[in-house]
Structure formats: structure tokens, C-alpha cells
Amino acid sequence: MKALVYTGPEALDYREMADPVPQEGEALIRVESVGICGSDMHAYLGHDDRRPAPLVLGHEAAGVVLSGAMTGARVTVNPLVTCGTCPACRSGRDNLCSTRQIISMPPREGAFAGLLAMPERNLVAVPEHMTTHQAALAEPIACGWHGVRLGRAVLGEGAQRALVLGGGAIGLGAALSLTAQGIADVTMVEPHAARRAFLDLRCDQKAIAPDALDPSEQFDIVVDGVGYEATRAQASAHARPGGVIAHIGLGQSTGGLDIRRMTLQEITFIGTYTYTAQDFRDCAQAMFDGRLGALDWVEERALSDGARAFADIRGGRVTSPKIILVP
Description:
This protein has helices at 38-44, 87-90, 132-135, 138-155, 169-180, 193-203, 229-238, 259-264, 277-288, 306-314, and strands at 2-8, 11-16, 26-35, 55-56, 60-65, 74-77, 80-81, 101-102, 115-119, 123-125, 161-165, 185-189, 206-208, 219-224, 239-247, 268-271, 298-302, 322-326. It is α/β, with parallel strands linked by helices.
């Protein structure tokens, strides 16, 4: 099969690789759509020690099953592989599994390839009315779905206003999830002017520049889809007393949080990692039911042109929240 291989900082090679061999309980999938994630960009820039070169990146995948019980089905892929037996898995928090693995991180190669082997339990069948491009968005949107669910569990019925920091696919997925889960008043902050226009015109979102945010404005829940020092500082400043910060982004490890204000105002900080298997299924079903919008905000590129796609994202030349690569 052909695959796009990360070979070092800002270097990708489109090359021939051996086809994956499914193990017991796994299916072979022909990848038809795979998204470029922010974590793929971190690896591409050499900023992620968990993803050493050479490695096939990519974990936002959808395609057609070629083997096993679901042969012929169109599926979206939950890329998080868990044991199913540890205390975290048994309690429904399988995203915290002590032996969790995710494709695009050793020992599992990713989905920037023609074929992918995955446990059958990680596959969700996709209805005919949905394209594989749309189905591949289940993974990034599920991250926001999970964070919003956790935040709402803390706030109960008191959550009415939300702020989302970052207008990429994680931030947009969180904004759509907030609306789908009952919080209609959502403001997005995005520094890239062209992307703000895209979010306004194509995604029906209220997107503003960082300096347009009223310093005194307070929100019930703030979702940080970026995870930089500056966005954490914004989150600390704009969460209301008793509010929640749901932190998804992995941009920087430290800095930004106003711990004194968070303590004095009893602001809850929730670190959120991916999603549970149930969150993934619930998010996918919401997509299938049309509760997350048209899901038409992607830009398509060929996998063979993947190196240029990464370079364009790096250079700020991409306005859509998501590039989908087609093997």
C-alpha cells in the first residue's frame, strides 16, 4: 500500500509500505478519508516525543471494511485501543485505560495510508446519507463532545453561555457539541481573520478576534481547544465564579492559568483526553441525526499531496477547520 510517512521535522515521504495484517478480532479497512489533526502537526514540527520518526501519522479515519464480520460496511474509526478489563475500562472511563494505545503512536501506525487494521469493536457503521469525509470528523468532534459532557456534568442546568478558544476542528467540534447538548449561546475566539470569516459564513458560528473579547465578559463554560499559555490565561479570566474550564488543547505544557482566581472563585478545571467509547458512539449518532450541522467545512487533498497540505497549514494558508486527505 501507499502511505504518507513522517521522517523528521517538517518532512513527509509518500512511499510504498507493507499492507497491515489484521490480528484476531481486528478488521482490515480501506481508508477513504483521513483528517489532519493538530497533534499530527505537533509531530510534523518535531514537538511530540510520543511520535518518533519514521511513523505513519493520522488517526481521524473513515473507510470500508474489507475483512471480518463487518465486511462491506462503511465505518468511522475510533482510534483509541483499550484493554476493556482494567478499572478505568470497567468504570466506563476507557480513555484513561492504563495500557491505552492510539493509532499514529507506536506501536500502532496511523491512517495516512491506503489500509488500516483495527479492532472490530472500534468501528461504527456509517449510514448511507453520510460521506466518509463527514464520517472522519467523528474523531475530532468527539473530543469536544467529551469535554462538553464533562463540563455540563459539573454545572448541571446552570450552563447557558460558553466560550470556545480556537477555531480549528477541535474548537468547532466543541462549539457544535455545546449547541447539540443544550447550550445555545456560544462565542468562538479565533485569531486568523480568514478562518473567522469561514466560521461565520460556512459554519454559522459567532467568531471574534482575541482582542474583541470584552475583558469583563464571563461564561459558564470555557473550552480551550488550543492549549497555549495565552489561551489558558483567557480561560482563567473569562470563566465565571463557579464556572468550568474544559481543557482539550495540547499546544504548551505549562503556563497561563490564574490559579489564585480559580481558587478564590471555585472555578473547576477539567483536563480532557480524547473521549470514551460511549462518547464516540454518541457523537457519531448525533452526527448521523443531523444535530451537529451539515459537516461540510472540510477541504479535500490527495494523500500523495499530503506534504504540501502540512506545509500549507504550517504557513497559515488554510482557512477551513479541517483538511481531509484521500488515499
